């Protein structure tokens, strides 16, 4: 078998059908679709079992976190390659075909990503992003940034298994980044220069732990270098996650502030940016958000120049 598509599901009922359909309707047909239900308590199982497609391999397990769920599927996969998928995204129809063909023609690669198109929770498209780094640049910068958007990755099954799969001690933080770093011992990483997946931004995925970011990055750096995490760092990671503000109005404000920034800086869609920033201000007032809201009334060429100026200063 050529490909094993690997997807973990935890309470993903809202967008699950769309994710599954996007895989079953691929132009490339020779694959198995491993769906690991990681202890869902919603109707995810019922939705999965509605499908009468022989390519689906359904595995149910107790909740143990993303890394453990993915390893459950990885180590029973029959495909030469693993194509990752998330339960709230959807792949473009020829994603598997393009990634399979490219990997077959480039045996030096152990993993191949692709561009992503960001979309709102309800499906409105925001902007597309592709990683333009060469394999050599990826290797040089592996400790600083994750080189492949995890739900787009297409990697060699045997190499991932040799690396021990996903590191279960960190459960769901940078499990992909660490695996990619380990895989570099066996070959190169790269991303196709076109969007292959629509990535859904949901309010629960927007973090509000800005004050802990430097500490989080330091823990990530140590873990990537050592390829393991100390008990102290692991416990601190969980503490950092707990420190997130759980107030619903605050979370809604952060989510719409993030969307407002993306629409303004990446799309220069001032109308949609303004709409999201208004919602953000309504739920949690901040002067910085108000200032950004005022920027949406400036001419587009000024917005672009302002973004380029700020971006240049940030990357110096």
From TrEMBL:
GO molecular function: hexosyltransferase activity
Transmembrane segments: 290-310
Entry keyword annotation includes Transmembrane: yes
Keyword flag Magnesium: no
Protein name: Glycosyltransferase involved in cell wall bisynthesis
Alphabetical keyword list: Membrane, Transferase, Transmembrane, Transmembrane helix
Residue intervals of the Glycosyltransferase 2-like domain: 4-128
InterPro entries for the chain: Glyco_trans_2-like, Nucleotide-diphossugar_trans
Classification lineage: Bacteria, Pseudomonadati, Bacteroidota, Flavobacteriia, Flavobacteriales
